[in-house]
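Chapter review: from sequence to fold.
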Amino acid sequence: MTSSHLQLDSVAVHAGREDLAELGVHAPPIDLSTTNPLSSIEAGGLSYEAMAGGGTPDPEGGSVYARLWNPTVARFESALARLEHAEAAVAFSSGMAAMTAAILATLKESGGRRHVLAVRPLYGGTDHLLASGLLGAEVTYCSASQVAAARRPDTALVVLETPANPTLDLVDIRAVVEAAEGTPVLVDNTFATPILQNPLDLGAAMVLHSATKYLGGHGDVIAGVIACGQEQAAALRRVRAVTGGLLHPLGAYLLHRGLATLPVRVRAQQANARRIAAWLQTHPSVARVYYPGFDGDPLGLLGRQMDGTGAMISIDLHGGYEQAERVTSATGLFTHAVSLGGVDSLIQHPAALTHRPVAPRARPAASLVRLSIGLEDAEDLITDLDRALATRHSISFSATAAPAQATPETRQESDRPLVEAAERLGRG
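The token string follows.
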């Protein structure tokens, strides 16, 4: 059976390992060389020029220097490209390094266009990067339904995330691609992973992952990767070569190893999340549960665009910031920490942490807590959350009470503890 006919689970295990038998090894080798011997000045120079220009090493000239190319990194890239149905993939030292390279490369190749459309909500780091002006782009923030109206002749890129961080909003990728009318669309696919969603199949030009999360899956590597076509990959490699954003080969090895168990992990974490989300809906301290499908899937994307609901949950607490602070500090099995997608469960407060740099009008409510569901027993996780939600001083509410709807006024009031905390930090 050829590799092109393999099912998803088999691809996850075998992609990027096709030549191991020829090499006489079973596990992919790790090449930690920072520099490589040259056969001649001319051959080395030609290979250097090819890699700096976005290509791959010349066989005679070799890989020269690790900032330009590394075989262990290339193996992971090849495997991820297979999973995302892409021609190529380019790996970076972090998800933010990948996003930065995507924006810089797109603007460089855009023929002078500098406008970027950003569909909110987005990961706080991405939102902050775009708002900072650091990359020379003019940014317009909009909703998915506003893309057609917000697009301009000088729009070079549309950036979106689905499911979105941290409210799990689903965005119709194909509809945004159509509204973009030929403008490249970059989709952050971190929450869904290639197991549940393949944006390139829906017309996206680039798919970005914070590989730190589900792809690695064990909280021990920081990385980013973009899957795309060959031309975009060459442009991304040119930026990577100049800026030095190459992923370390040991990180690439860990990521490549993580891909083998990605389908199993995602499905098991998703099963846990569904059970926990359903239980949270019944809890009197929880005003609202954010989880794909719990709003009835008005866009009809589950099963059509996304093959599952994922393993991320966010909850709005009746007790606002004060209860969010108590709950995040009271869990025992859930680790109070940022990041997500690992085998162990995490709990965090987006407005105070990952989304703290976001403009106040777009920041998540102070009553919102985000959960990354891991591989522990679901009943143990439910027990842990139940104890945390019932901590002393927790506010009790009727289980039949209607969920509170946030307004600009109530959100401003609920954010007051964050504002006061920031002021105290400034004075300190």
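Two observations follow directly from the output. The chain has 15 helices and twelve strands. The two ends are 65 Å apart (CA to CA).
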